[in-house]
Amino acid sequence: MSRRRRFPLLSYLLVVSGAVLMVVPFLDMVMTSFKGPGESGRLPYRFLPETFGLANYRAALTQLNLPLLFRNSVTVTALITVSVLLTSSLAGYALAKLRFPGRDLVFRLVLTTMMFPPFLFFVPHFLILSHWPLAGGNDLFGRGGAGLTASIVALAMPFLVNGFGIFLTRQFVISIPDEILEAARLDGAGEFTLWWRIVLPQTKPVLVTLALLTFVDAWNEYIWALLISTADPDVMTLPVGIQLLQDHVDPTRTMPVVMAALVLSVLPVLALFLVLQKHYVRGVLLSGLK
């Protein structure tokens, strides 16, 4: 009995320790956002600020132009998330339930795209967008202008389709019984109706999980956003703006302002997770069981 009790206690201790390790950096970020100038770099380190104030949040709003950064980040993240959900659900359904020549080859190619890091294709993507015909001053042959690199569309273009999303959705759709789809076909339902009326409602948990993962990745994207914003600062997103502020010559004074901006940038992701937490956990569990 003592041995049986010891292992659950050890498991709880490990879980609590992991939770503390995850929460403490977030709490330190929040506490630092309230510190005054010079407090963040003082030794010995103090976790709590001497006085709580909102001066750093006001400074973040004025120095970073947060309304513009938030607008760009929300626009790009929403566009990427909607596109990934749409393309992943359609492609996942086609690769799981439709029979056509080369289906397995297409699926293997989708899996192959997951083997390469995304930044490997940033240079080709940039060249394609910069030579986009009839955009940004380019002629029909893509010469003479900046193409799409000077627009906010360029921030989302490389991420509109996600190989992992297609794989995840396809693995989930396989579990839908074929008899249901065949019965609907006998009743005269087309493939779009099958996808819209049968497949989508049953894949809701995995789509919510995919939406959260895609939202977080798109919201935190930095390298591609930095590359595009060098051509047009008006399309700068929140991570790029915060990083530029962090590179200030006096980090002891700007660090609390950076932390205040980080807190504001985390709030949308945290709120979205809290709203969709039930569906997210269910989607992870069902995907793991499959």
From TrEMBL:
Transmembrane segment boundaries: 7-27, 74-96, 105-128, 148-168, 206-228, 257-276
All copies of domain ABC transmembrane type-1, residue ranges: 70-276
Keywords: Cell membrane, Membrane, Transmembrane, Transmembrane helix, Transport
Pfam family, one: BPD_transp_1
Subcellular location: Cell membrane
Annotated membrane topology: Multi-pass membrane protein
GO terms, biological process: transmembrane transport
Record-level GO cellular component terms: plasma membrane
InterPro entries: MetI-like (IPR000515), MetI-like_sf (IPR035906)
Homology family: Belongs to the binding-protein-dependent transport system permease family.
Name recorded for this polypeptide: Carbohydrate ABC transporter permease
